[in-house]
Amino acid sequence: GNRSRAQRPRFAMAGKPAIMPMPLLLLLQATLANAAFLHHAPLPLRLSAPFPPARVCSACIRVSHSTNFYAPCMARRASSAFITMSSRKPGVSEPEALAAFVKEAGSRLIVVDARNPDFTLEPGDKVTNEKAPIGSSARARAVNVPYNRAEKTMDLSKIPADWIEAGGGKESVPVITHCGGGGRGQKAKEYLEANGFKNVLNGGGPEDEECWATFGDK
């Protein structure tokens, strides 16, 4: 408030300085760093006093006050992680949470595959079936209980009663639902919860490689 117009921090890009309040200046710097992360291009940020010139490496999101600074590039890895996070469907649990859930569940785990083996009804399931066959005996703790989009129902009698009992009943038995990518997996989770199951996570499906790696062999 007491600074003169000439003393206020300035932001300069492409040789066009403009006076800007400090909070907005800091917000803009963070926003530009995020933009650089998406486009993999180093952005020169020139801030007058109290900040010296800064340069952001888009790959590592590291800032240096040297105009010749470029951090070691990890662009591909960073981009891949960002794309995976941003494309994960609503309700799908993070890989770390799924891994911990699977470890805690042990032999009590039940995996409910909500995909439909009738590919005329769910053409997309034909694609993920090639990676993870529906009803495969290789997945000892998985049971196929298709989610019916039209009726918004599932035949829960397909889940072995002895599995539920061994897991401590509906309120305790650990369940992971999935489909191809997690859309119907979330609907299946909500349907199970509406029918008394209280310990359920949405695992996404074969399309989400990070999540699938935590329970896809169960």
Molecular structure report:
Helix content is 34%, strand content 16%. It is an alpha/beta fold. Residues 8-14, 16-20 and 35-85 have low confidence and may be disordered.
Give the strand order of the largest sheet, numbering strands 1, 2, ... along the chain: 2-1-3-4-5
User: Helices and strands, in N-to-C order?
Assistant: EEHEEEHHEHEHEHEH
Q: Specify the biggest β-sheet.
A: 5 strands, antiparallel
Number of helical runs?
A: 7
C-alpha Rg, in Å?
Answer: 25 Å
**Number of β-strand runs:** 9
Distance between the termini: 63 Å
In quaternary terms, these chains amount to single chain
> Helical percent range?
25-40%
Low-confidence stretches: 8-14, 16-20, 35-85
User: What would you call the shape?
Assistant: globular
Percentage beta strand? 15-25%
Kindly state the mean pLDDT as a whole number? 77
Secondary-structure-derived class: alpha/beta
What would a concise description of this structure say?
The chain has helices at residues 22-39, 75-87, 95-105, 124-131, 161-166, 183-194, 209-215, and strands spanning 10-13, 16-19, 43-47, 54-57, 62-64, 110-113, 142-144, 175-178, 200-202. The protein is an alpha/beta fold and 218 residues long.
How do the strands and helices of this protein lay out in sequence?
Blueprint: E1 10-13, E2 16-19, H1 22-39, E3 43-47, E4 54-57, E5 62-64, H2 75-87, H3 95-105, E6 110-113, H4 124-131, E7 142-144, H5 161-166, E8 175-178, H6 183-194, E9 200-202, H7 209-215
Parallel strand pairs: 6-7, 6-8, 8-9
Antiparallel strand pairs: 1-2, 1-3, 3-4, 4-5
Helix pairs in contact: 3-7
